[in-house]
């Protein structure tokens, strides 16, 4: 890869049919809307319910997305699973399809594992895939994975696989951690993305590359605008406006809240559905969310409505 | 199923070849040795590194084990994964092969999920498999999964799926929790297995059915003997002896320690290998473990040596 992906990416939410199978048509339509709003596609992230999808379901969805004509140069699928062999399979597929990079969780079942064990995992994946086009973005989300990616591990991986170990999504929510990575690793071509737009402006001002944020599913244009115009006089005001929208969503379980907004503004109740173990918002929660978004004049212009999808 | 499985089961450790693929022959030989020592096979447990195996690898191994003539009536494979559809696939296979039951982790990626979400998961698996032969043993191992199985969830599952929700492996290490389940649920045919032999005697004395324990991989005969003779005068002394052996293993990362003992007493260094993110013991740790086991006159009689496996 010569030019690295940057900007704003959405961990694309996954719609489900009544039988809980992924709804491919609704999903591709949402991916297109996001692309039209200048947002890259980090499909199969935490907010995609990707870990509730079988490996075969993920592989099938990615194949269909690229076949549908979505630009793989704007794709960063999540490929990290608990199992080395599954991770190799999904990563190799992403490379074969020409994806800009992959977002890789560490194996997350065993807790308290050593950096040596994590190093061996990433090394085995990189060598198992064995393709110079591979760009790995590490996924640090300790509150969910419970398996953090330490600075020492990044240092070791960068030394062993320069070029291939391309960056990180830092979902720690800890700006000190993000800043340490920006200082130590960004100058060496290790691209730092924050895990939410809350830190987008700060990240850009310190040399980072963008953010990969759940709310980019619902507020893509405004977040992408801040990424383009972060040196603008109005940047702080734009950040404050993004923060207001995000706060409204964060009052609720996030995946359910995102789907509620898409269902509402897309007039498509089928979008409310989640795959267990996640559950939808109650009616009361959904009403409260929509009201608080309307109070901020939030909307989702151009969102494909249910009757326009098939 | 008319007669339920009981007694001592081992979460069978999984040997790996130099290329990190599962070593099927060594694995089946170890399964046979465990069966000969009166221990059932909870293959694909935490100590099996099952969560480091691809779903396809697990399915293939189980198929081969049954084809090799191991009695499926003594098998309780782990089938719980993060993904509903993978869990249904593995569970349906186990039922088709005639396994006595399945040991089912809750989906463990998302944390802080509701009992409603977990209920829907187990319900969707049970209904997705749709076979009256299915016996589900819930797997409560909060320190690793970080997703506990509450008493309220068990109550709800037992009411909705009596007969199918057959019991639990309680790896909380919290005797109060085990005792609460023995009191509330064992009388209703919900079979309680403790997650280690440390609580085997206490469990039997309170009406439980046995244990599913990592150290049954290395000390099967003695643990199975206590299960058979728990009403014996010598039962407390037998428990104390088991506790001594377990303490020696627990000083080290457990899976690596179990494999070290098998490698030593089986004169088969290949057994030392783990799949990342787990790593083997250092030479110093391995030496210390073997010495402390020898000091207790520990041995593994009849363990298949490397030259007898193929």
Counting DSSP H or I runs of 4 or more residues, the number of helices of chain A is 12
* Residues in helix, % of chain A: 40-55%
The side-by-side strand order for the widest beta sheet of chain A comes to 2-1-7-6-5-4-3
Kindly, what is the distance between the CA atoms of the first and last residues of chain A, rounded to a whole number of angstroms?
35 Å
Shape of chain A: globular
Q: Tell me the number of strands of chain A.
A: 7
What does the oligomeric state look like here? homodimer
Per DSSP, what share of the residues of chain A sits in E-state strands of 2 or more residues? 5-15%
Give the H and E element order of chain A: EHEHHEHEHHEHEHEHHHH
Which sheet architecture does the biggest sheet of chain A show? Answer: 7 strands, parallel
